[in-house]
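Quick illustration, no need to memorize.
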Amino acid sequence: MTSLTQPNEPDRQVVAAARSAAWRRNLRRMLRNPSLVTGGVILFVFFVVAILANVLAPYGGNAQDILHVLQRPSWAHPFGTDSIGRDIFSRVILGTRYSLSIAVLSVAIGAVIGIPVGLVAGYFGGRLDSWLMGFIDILLTIPVIVLAIAIVTVIGPGMVGLVVAISITFAPRLARITRGRVFEVKEEVYVSAAQALGGTTRRVMTRHVLPNSFAPLIIEITLRAGQAVLVGAALGFLGLGVQPPTPEWGTMLSRGRDYLQLARFVVIAPGIAISLLVLGFNLFGDGLRDIWDPNG
């Protein structure tokens, strides 16, 4: 006898077919969105370069050729060489790993911190919400770069300090967005039904409220990743980020600014790399917004 609580085989096939059709429909919508496709291609190229950096870079990141200092772009050195004869093309390729790592780790840690805070504040509301959001509002009054500089000054420059600083600056914004979305979702009928059926608070929050709040969060996380690249490069430019001789784009800009009059090409390549990576994240985030939140 077929169980009343378990779907039979035809029902499973219908559900699987419906899910497959929905997936194909969403895929077609994504492929028709120029921002999403363009941003996705840019990000894909950068991720491939980061993974294959050691293979693609013709020279080591710190290999010096003292006979060709500040050499203009050529076949041997497509982006030229810097003030101590290092190949800029190789350093830009190897620097992709650091900029992508900073962006991905920063937004991931910021999401781990901010999303639970916003989820708790939005679901329970009341005095707990007031306390949490009061602290969040205080952090939001401080400009991102100023707060990041203050945090790095306390922790110390370097990759770890940079990631921690950017994560803490992004967490309040993700908490605020999560809270607003949770306020909307928790009033939906399916949430009330789950509560009426005896679902625990934890189960309702993690199985019904949070999954249905993900769309705006993923959009925001993608856009924040682009901002993380800029903040990381800015701190590197100020000497508070990844330290030399590591080939990080912001640090390369900082070291090359003394040679702007003599050899502008020293800063052009890392500057373009930063712009393209930020553009990729922004286009991808805008494309997701067009698809998931057309009225946002």
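The first helix runs from residue 9 to 31.
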